[in-house]
Design a protein that fits this description.
single chain, alpha/beta, three-stranded mixed sheet, 10 helices, globular
Length: 248
């Protein structure tokens, strides 16, 4: 068995009923692990199973990955649970319906080795594009970039994860933005910044657009903004319906 202190990366994948998408992600993860300059054995993969009722856990186990069960139905809780069981020096998080770049681990390693970076993200590419998807992308991503943030594979050192207390489990959505914001604030105390490693962008699924229509996200944002001033309960209901009840 590999000694705990020899693990460099822990890749954590929160998952709920992802049997259709995990094999696609795992194929790219294995290519990236085998391509890592310091050896595939330096990278462990953890699937944080958030109450799946399908073959998610079995598929992960068959690939030789560690599965941890998460009772609290929240993606932030799944990320935290995976991180708490991780052994790596660097924690990396990616959604189950993604595909990572073959150079992901090498690029993150180089980025963190400068000593100038506290955390970062690889950025994303949509698996397909259309006018509706492009507008949704432009409503969200440029704003994140203005603050030095991005999506895709999000990474940080374990010690910094622990200092900020991980992901905020009270948030049902946008917990990754809050996570990077907290790390950004922590980084200011040591002169380190957030980084965008866009040479290894992650491909993200358009499954919700495929199921709900290419313009649905624009209407979702507008509908949410309209109720924000009046009812936090309604905002929560919109988030729960979209991110936790609709399985696309």
């Amino acid at each position: 068995m590999t000694e705990n202190n020899s693990i460099k990366f822990s890749l954590i994948i929160p998952a709920f009923n992802e049997e259709a998408y995990l094999p696609l992600l795992f194929e790219t993860v294995e290519k990236a692990r085998l391509n890592y300059l310091h050896g595939a054995e330096k990278i462990e993969v953890i699937v944080a199973d958030n109450g799946s009722t399908d073959a998610t856990a079995e598929i992960a186990s068959l690939h030789g990955y560690r599965v941890v069960s998460v009772e609290k139905r929240a993606i932030a809780a799944a990320r935290n649970c995976g991180a708490n069981s991780a052994r790596g020096e660097v924690l990396a998080f990616v959604d189950a319906d993604s595909k990572i770049h073959i150079e992901t681990f090498n690029a993150i390693d180089r980025c963190l080795s400068t000593g100038k970076v506290i955390a970062g993200a690889t950025g994303i590419r949509m698996e397909r594009m259309s006018p509706g998807i492009a507008v949704a992308y432009l409503l969200i991503v440029p704003l994140l970039v203005c603050f030095g943030m991005d999506a895709g594979v999000i990474f940080c050192r374990r010690e910094d994860f622990e200092k900020i207390g991980g992901y905020n489990e009270d948030m049902l959505a946008a917990e990754d933005i809050r996570f990077l914001w907290d790390l950004k604030r922590l980084g200011k105390t040591s002169g380190r910044k957030l980084a965008r490693v866009t040479s290894v962008r992650t491909i993200t699924s358009t499954r919700k657009f495929d199921e709900l229509g290419d313009w649905h996200y624009v209407s979702l944002i507008l509908r949410t903004l309209l109720v924000v001033p009046f009812s936090r309960r309604k905002v929560k209901k919109i988030i729960e319906d979209y991110w936790y009840d609709v399985r696309c």
